[in-house]
Automatic annotation (TrEMBL):
It is a multi-pass membrane protein. Residues 284-383 form the CASTOR/POLLUX/SYM8 ion channel conserved domain. The keyword Manganese does not apply. PANTHER family: ION CHANNEL POLLUX-RELATED. Gene3D superfamilies: NAD(P)-binding Rossmann-like Domain. The chain crosses the membrane at residues 21-45, 81-107. This is Ion channel DMI1. InterPro entries: CASTOR/POLLUX/SYM8-like, CASTOR/POLLUX/SYM8_dom. Keywords: Ion transport, Membrane, Transmembrane, Transmembrane helix, Transport. Pfam families: Castor_Poll_mid.
Amino acid sequence: MLPFRFVDRVKFIVERQLVKGAGFQLLVVGVFIGMISLVGGLLVIPFGAPFEDVGDAIWWAFLRLTDPGYLGDDVGNWQRLVSTILTISGYVVFMGTLVAILTRWLIAKMTDLERGLTPVTLRNHIVVLGWTSQTLPLLGELLGSSGRMRRFLEKHDTNRLRLVVLSETASAAQVHELRNEPGIGRKARQIILRSGAAIQPDALQRVACLDASAVIVPSAAHEAGSLVTSDVETVKALLSIAAQARHLGAPLPFVVAEIQDVRKHPVIERAYPGEMEVVAGDATISRLMVQNILHPGLSEIYNELLTAGEGCETYIRGGDSLAGHTLAELASQRPRVIVLGILKPAGKGWNIQMPAPSDTLIAAEDRVVMLARDYAETEPDPKAPALPVINRGQPVSRPVVASGQVHRVLVLGWNRRVPSLISEFSSYSQLRFEVDIVSVVSARERQQEIDRYLGEQRDVICRHVEADYMVEGELRRVAPLNYDSIMLLSSDRLASGEEADARAMVGYLQLEDLLSEGGRRPQLIMELSDPDNRHLLAGHQSEMIISPMIVSHVLAQVALRRELRVVLDELFTVGGAEIQFRPPHDYPLPASTDFQLLEKVVAESGEVALGIWRNQPDERGHHVKLSPPRSEYLDLQAGDRLVVLCST
């Protein structure tokens, strides 16, 4: 074995001290300064310099090392030579090295502060675990929900909203994104970023999960075939929160968790014993897509109801301030609101009555479901005249009638939601669907995913075509004109939502060329991942679904009002309440009618009139007008349809 050199040993010892941080680095530099001062002082003593002892000589050397201004006081060539060497050494060791260490330490500290590694000292705030494509619209929804947020803050006895976001690597770039996001802008100062992963217990403590009034866990994208999925991370995060609460003896916060695979719902509930609402993101989008196939044009309605911006939204009011009134009396006192139904407690859940008879009495523990443009409209307006009381009887079930024909659906593209989509088709047992899936992903892999999700269920005929719909020749061989509906999906296998949407939009333009060649035009539904791309296809003839915006809205609003989840599940799943389009001749309407009269006539069938679907769009390209003023004459034209809430 070769012997170690003395120099190598010294280098190793110095290196081990330097890597310990700024404090040890300063200590090493201090040792070097002391050694240089000692050597310099010893060099000038033998030459008769005016020093009383060695201490004075060392102090003289130290002064020359730290300050070049003493050079003019030296006498004699030897003192001047030593003083010059000491001064140059001071520039290198004292000033250069010392300043470099302090600068690096300061930059490192500032970087750590920017990364958000210190725990927050907040209470009753809202925590979002994860920075995904849904985070920005989710934060915009929370900051824009003024009425719901005001009630939420009053409930938790606080007067200021604070949002804490846990990101893998918090950075100044993310702060810039927050400031540029519509709906956030200057409100970005209400958002605090912290670094860490939701599966790390210390990161959960960093955002003070146990002191939060609500914790939102959105799903993150993962590579296909990865063993660590978003649902796995969600379960781990919930287990960590529950473990921290047990260790500290603290109460569990309210959690809104998104899962991709709805079959994991029992696992999620088992992982977290506290109050929680689970939103199945993939199943929600799949339900909306199938509903839109059953009722073409419905996408415009739920894009209004389930995204931020102008238009109507669904609100839920507690019965404590409404107790003793009937639904008819409540509706007459709120002229800008449409009462959709009522939720009555049933064990740990709710008994949903949508629509509900107008003579239903409201109890203090009930929840009333309303459609309005703003939360303030759900309050009684003493200045406005009361509306006439509308009598609505018990709703009559009007299910979708099976035509006996097979509805052929062409799916262009592949993502993780397709198995859930096929499952949703299968839930409508009275209808027959045939689905052809075109993708570059191998047919074997796709079929395995569907079989794994559906099990032995085979109610929907599903065929696979290995082709690239971006190539005109391959798309033409599929013959898209032979289908009743076409779905253009945004891929989740690309690096970003922008790339996935770029592919989807190019495919849409390619498809439009083939559909323009003539024949009966099928219904076209396009899914996008990036909300910024929704305005790029001006004048498009497809129905558009922006998945992250819809799921973000649901997560945000359920966090503020948890009963909203059961209402949305009721509206967009098979059976129960459903939004449908009806021709005007289904009801005994006079030639000239306003919305108030329409509401009364529709109520006689036990249904709720929501608005009008115009055959000709307005100047903004919108067909639907929900909750128009009661006194507005409808002027129904050929092809116009009524939007009603009915029971199926």
